[in-house]
Specification:
Mopterin_synth/thiamin_S_b, RnfH, UPF0125 protein HMPREF9439_00051, alpha+beta, Ubiquitin-like (UB roll), RnfH_sf, 95 residues, 2 helices, 5 strands
Length: 95
């Protein structure tokens, strides 16, 4: 079966394609790739969390993701603080 794998690295997104026999697990794929999963790194198949023991299907994409550096709500708030306010438009004064 043919699989793809993606992992975030300091230099950017690393993508690999590999072929494994039917009945392979996520752990088998990680070993074949030479990638290590640590406790803080997330593991998923198409964005759904998984475990190393989970069986793979043909065409699956394994994703290794690093933990968030900042809470998404906090990041949005900080971006909003750095943007100039725009004049609001609307129908409040429309006739």
């Amino acid at each position: 079966m043919l699989l793809s794998a993606v992992k975030q690295t300091p230099s950017g997104l690393l993508k690999k394609v590999l072929e494994l026999p039917e009945g392979s697990t996520v752990g088998d794929a990680l070993r074949a790739l030479g990638w290590q999963k640590t406790e803080e790194i997330g593991l998923s198949i198409y964005g759904r969390r998984c475990k190393e023991e989970d069986l793979l299907k043909d065409g699956d994409r394994i994703e290794l993701t690093e933990p968030l550096r900042i809470d998404p709500k906090e990041a949005r708030r900080l971006r909003a603080l750095n943007k100039p306010l725009l004049a609001t438009r609307g129908r409040k004064h429309a006739k």
